[in-house]
């Protein structure tokens, strides 16, 4: 039984595409509504009913405006989506209210992947939007410092850069509290896209968060269509954050609406259970339901246990490595960066199981090293760090 997906390049999922969040009432401070996510099947979410719209012009990065040198004309891997600030507690195992202090860390899954690829020696670009504020310019500078092409980054004068507070349990797992009301990443417009940058890429990578509301949904669909029409390999990591969606059904529908256009999909065990409505994520027959006819590679990450891989010709498992987890934020993104950096250099890996397994071993180590430090982007490993760690990985 195949899962049913909507047309990948269809209009918005409904006439009312605005996010609905539960409201937390703050009487002593003017704070935006927040979305709280617990990394377990039991999810408590928030939100607000009406998202304001902004009509101001967005700025693109340029030498004249920002003092940033012009980025290169192309990149092997272009990542589209959100970039934000993670606030990670300095002490694990405490609730957000109990945390004595937080470490500010740049993050956002697609941005993490872009930086991860660059750290590994690859060529990457990021397309998205941040607020025209101190955090937004800080994030733009972080992309530059990590040699990520940031020519596709836009600044919104009417919305702030997104923030996420991350609680670390004693085992390194996370709970999230998001500030998006709306944040700038949700307001990226189709006309703001650098389509030439996307068309010139070897791989176009994205998540699902930009599908939640307009105008970012239309921008996302247009970017994916431009990439597909140009023969670019499409990579998709749904990166489920259920409280940011109006409902579980809308999340499932939204994630599956672009499922059939992807060439490579990376999912977690939790996401398999969610998309199949509770079926066993360890059952290969269940996983195969997610394998659409045009898919080249389906990857399932299992944390410290490694990953599984499925293609039309073969399937298998590559074990992970055991490390002491400090913060699991960004581990899946580091894994994606690891495998995409290999595929950008040689896409024929997909058809050669032995070489694919070596590439996935490399990706597993990328993920493992990332959990040994706090924050996502700060913890992403260099290529040399991964190669050094591989020396101790059993063949």
UniProtKB/TrEMBL annotation:
Molecular functions per Gene Ontology: ATP binding; fructokinase activity
GO biological process, any: fructose metabolic process
Pfam families the UniProt entry points to: PfkB
The reaction(s) this protein catalyses: D-fructose + ATP = D-fructose 6-phosphate + ADP + H(+)
CDD domains documented for this protein: bac_FRK
The keyword Nucleotide-binding is assigned to this record: yes
Coiled coil regions, renumbered to chain: none
Carbohydrate kinase PfkB domain mapped to chain residues: 75-382
Record InterPro entries: Carboh/pur_kinase_PfkB_CS, PfkB_Carbo_kinase, PfkB_dom, Ribo/fructo_kinase, Ribokinase-like
Domain of life: Eukaryota
Entry-linked PROSITE patterns: PFKB_KINASES_1, PFKB_KINASES_2
Keywords from the UniProt entry: ATP-binding, Carbohydrate metabolism, Kinase, Nucleotide-binding, Transferase
A GO CC term attached to the entry: cytosol
Pathway field: Glycan biosynthesis; starch biosynthesis
Catalytic activity, EC: 2.7.1.4
Family the entry assigns: Belongs to the carbohydrate kinase PfkB family.
Protein name per Swiss-Prot or TrEMBL: fructokinase
Species assigned in the record: Rhynchospora pubera
């Amino acid at each position: 039984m195949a899962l049913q997906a909507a047309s990948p390049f269809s209009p918005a999922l409904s006439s009312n595409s605005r996010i609905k969040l539960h409201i937390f009432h703050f009487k002593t401070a003017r704070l935006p509504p927040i979305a709280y996510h617990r990394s377990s099947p039991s999810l408590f979410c928030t939100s607000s009913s009406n998202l304001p719209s902004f009509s101001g012009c967005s700025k693109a990065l340029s030498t004249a405006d920002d003092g940033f040198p012009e980025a290169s004309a192309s990149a092997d891997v272009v990542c589209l989506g959100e970039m934000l600030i993670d606030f990670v507690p300095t002490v694990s195992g405490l609730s957000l209210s109990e945390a004595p202090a937080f470490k500010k860390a740049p993050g956002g899954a697609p941005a993490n992947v872009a930086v991860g690829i660059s750290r590994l020696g690859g060529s990457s670009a990021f397309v998205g939007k941040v607020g025209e504020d101190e955090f937004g310019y800080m994030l733009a500078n972080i992309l530059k410092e990590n040699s990520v092409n940031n020519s596709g980054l836009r600044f919104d004068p009417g919305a702030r850069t997104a923030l996420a507070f991350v609680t670390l349990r004693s085992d390194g797992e996370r709970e999230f509290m998001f500030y998006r009301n709306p944040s700038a990443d949700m307001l990226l417009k189709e006309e703001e896209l650098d389509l030439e940058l996307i068309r010139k890429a070897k791989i176009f990578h994205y998540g699902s968060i930009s599908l939640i509301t307009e105008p970012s949904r239309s921008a996302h669909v247009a970017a994916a269509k431009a990439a597909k029409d140009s023969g670019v390999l499409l990579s998709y990591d749904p990166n489920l954050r259920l409280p940011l969606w109006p409902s579980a059904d809308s999340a499932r529908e939204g994630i599956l609406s672009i499922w059939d256009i992807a060439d490579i999909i990376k999912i977690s065990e939790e996401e398999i259970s969610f998309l199949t409505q509770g079926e066993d994520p360890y059952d290969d027959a269940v996983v195969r339901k997610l394998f659409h006819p045009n898919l080249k590679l389906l990857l399932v990450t299992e944390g410290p246990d490694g990953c599984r891989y499925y293609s039309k010709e073969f399937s298998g498992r590559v074990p992970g490595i055991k490390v002491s987890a400090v913060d699991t934020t960004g581990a899946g993104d580091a894994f994606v960066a690891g495998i995409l950096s290999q595929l950008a250099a040689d896409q024929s890996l997909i058809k050669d199981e032995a070489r694919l397994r070596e590439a996935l071993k490399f990706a597993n180590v990328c993920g493992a090293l990332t959990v040994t430090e706090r924050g996502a982007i700060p913890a992403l490993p260099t290529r040399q760090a991964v190669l050094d760690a591989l020396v101790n990985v059993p063949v």
